[in-house]
């Protein structure tokens, strides 16, 4: 079994090509949409689920059969057709610097896409390296329940609070203490209960130098 190296890629404004237009392609598109990648789908036909993204211009659809030139300038390539020959052609056409994922042949892929839970800036990923995708989905569901939608606002608050604290205090014990104080359980509870004024008051105290 391959020992994968976990990594988060910055795909902002970089070209990602998905060859295929079926259900698997839809899953891959959904995984890429939270990034700012330039997503291009190559397929003579596409599943109905992809149409809203095409209409909204969130992805570009080239209604055609695959050609090697479709991969020009792509950083990320996903072969997601139900035709082994086409997937093989995609892999063979890719340059050595391009990362390729074959949905039908994990062992031939440069990377795999883990089960992912996103809560704003918080990204939780789960992979069993292909040993048990069902287990990965189960753990993903458990994480999604534990880290619910409240974490979106909570993490965004922590992000802004950290910027304010680092701007206020020089590096040293006081800054470290203030940043550590942001992990107080009450902040998450206030966020969950909609008690934003209490959360903001706590932050203002930290900015005044009080590490409660």
From TrEMBL:
Return the EC number.
Answer: 1.3.1.76
Which keywords, in A-to-Z order, does the entry hold?
NAD, Oxidoreductase, Porphyrin biosynthesis
Q: Which residues form the Siroheme synthase central domain?
A: 119-146
Q: What class of enzyme is it?
A: oxidoreductase
Give the catalysed reaction(s), semicolon-separated. Answer: precorrin-2 + NAD(+) = sirohydrochlorin + NADH + 2 H(+)
Q: Which InterPro entries match?
A: Met8-like, NAD(P)-bd_dom_sf, SirC_C, Sirohaem_synthase_central, Sirohaem_synthase_N
Q: What pathway or pathways are given for this protein in its record?
A: Porphyrin-containing compound metabolism; siroheme biosynthesis; sirohydrochlorin from precorrin-2: step 1/1
Q: Which domain of life is it from?
A: Bacteria
Keyword Oxidoreductase in record: yes
Looking up Pfam families in the UniProt record yields: NAD_binding_7, Sirohm_synth_M
Protein name from the UniProt record = precorrin-2 dehydrogenase
